[in-house]
## 1
Amino acid sequence: MAEKKRFRMRGVKQTPKRLEEEILERSRKLAEDPALLRPMCAGNCRKCIFDKTFKAIDSISRYNDDADALLKLASKGSDDMARAYAGTISLNAAGKIPMLATATIGGEKVPFAVRGTVGNDKLIGCQYYDDPKIRLLYYNAFIKKNKLHLYSFRDGLVCTNYPNMPEDYLYEAFWESPYEFRDDGLDCGHKDALILDIKVKSVGGSIRICENCAKEVSTIQYIISRVCAVDPLDDLDVSVIHPYHSASESGTEKVEGDLLKRYLRGEINDRTLLNTIKREKMGSLKKGDVSTYVIGTENHGSDLGSFISALSGPEDEKETLRRFLSSAPVSVVIKGGRTSEALNSLWEGHWRELVAAHTSQGFADNMRERPKGAPSQALAEAHKAFASADVAASLPEFKKPKPVTRLSDALAKAAKVGGGDLVLKTIASESLKDRRLRAVSAAFALAADPGAELPIHLTDDERDFTDFLIPFAKSVIEAEGEGYRGAMNTLLTASGSGESV
């Protein structure tokens, strides 16, 4: 068995009728056919190591109707398995079980009859020869002493002198687990980021469980629960397949050492094992000196171009990520392929560098604290502020502007910075009670975007005035440097405001 069964005696008690009948029936079957205990052979031994033991068992079976002789045979000789057999079939010869002991094996109470001087483990295993797990107690010491492998089925046993797991055993053992997979039953069929891969080398196959299907059970325990060997893991490789690795590393992490022991003992389960490897590998990526880019299950290695091309989102956000990542050895691991998700993953530790890549280093250096809100929104606001400052620095400043001048200057700069959308937002923040101000506002909005839906209601006269002013507003928006002053004066004259700059 995978581990030596621990059991404690629970004392003796009067035999319940049903238990007596079950044990006596098994005793009868063994008395009639001792070959029920002999494993099938799947090895290549020159001579079967079981021959000597079953020669002794065959000799004992000749006394299958003599309870006294069988009890004597159960107390002498050096072959524990033969003595356990004698003690077991003596029950059938006696026709009754006067007293019954109880042992606790793996948390389960197992009643059995004490006979002879053989160890209780051999007696229990022999008396429960038809139980795939309990029966291994009968063979455990013999198998390990002779460095064999024993695989226990519901309907029999297979013995081999090297790791040679029958495929039917693998299916039967795995089907005891809570997993219910389609197709061949050993692969969940999903291609998620993490996959638990338990390879059975002698079978040439694997059990594969993705992180979303993984349950709070230790699958390895099911696989070895009915294997008896010195090292039941010598035929198994436990690995986690993952995308969280650099271009020079493997995407398969072998589970070994203390982690494997804890998994074997059931201290950690399938789900915990996957999460442990995930945290460990992602932590290594973030601490590494080489950039690695991962989207879902796709590992782009250090290929920044491939990573950026795989992202979806605004082009300005892509370009910002490209600028930042081209100069910073930072790994990015995201589930989806949105630029916003990539920005979110980097924002806390690199917000200032991202703002600098989106605007300028000088602008970012002047920011006192991290902007509030989502990174995409924060970058958009930063760009507006940066563009506004840049536009303002390139244009003449009007001292003490009057109402039409102030409004026209604000709308023209909004158009230069953010186009028609920012013009509409600026108009919405203004109080436009004067017909001239409404017409000027509408003219700038339509000059920046001829298809804009105006946020203000115009009378027919105001609409005609707006159409007249549109070319002048457009000239102001397109003007640069000192030409801006002249275009503004022309607009102010056309508006009839009487103002000038």
Note: The chain has a mean pLDDT of 90.
## 2
Amino acid sequence: MNIADRIQQLRKAKGISQEELADRVGVSRQAVSKWESEQSVPDLNKIILLSDYFGVTTDYLLKGIEPLPEQPAKGKPDARIFTVIGTALNFIGLVTAIGIWVIWYTQLSVVVGFVLMAAGCAVFAVGQLLGENAQTASRWFWLVNVWMLALMPISCVFNALDGTFGGFWWRLSPIPELGNSYITYALCWLSYGAACVAAERWLWKKLPKV
């Protein structure tokens, strides 16, 4: 197929006559007829006008070279995947900290727990910066993770206050320790539950519903 064939094919695909094409590019009908019968070739300006009108490249008109298909743009990763991974790390951090505390009774358990939870929150933050569906991911991350993220800080504060006011040796731990009395111990758990429920209600209202 040569340039004459390509012009004729594109014209017929458009469903227009030689006269209509001539009007579009500013030549006579006889000129278009000569192009399609190989009696003459359009000059460079007319080639550009033809390529614009037919929506093809000048390379296609002159040489029959089809343009390469555009590569689909790579989509952003789904932020919800980061939320799942971050939540899993937070859960592992809490369970690991409690396990270390129960077995070895060491304050290192709190350090390990906080490090793993920091990694979980960092993964979530990366998802918020780079991923799609960030609002949905944010909403479910906080609604689920508020319970895990709050337990160790509340436990550490409770154990410190309970030990200080009770006048006995205390250690930082990932869970509340029975110190002065069952009453203060129960109050700690009630405070933890109330704080998490209040946070959940606040987050439910404030975070965008998507």
Note: The two ends are 54 Å apart (CA to CA).
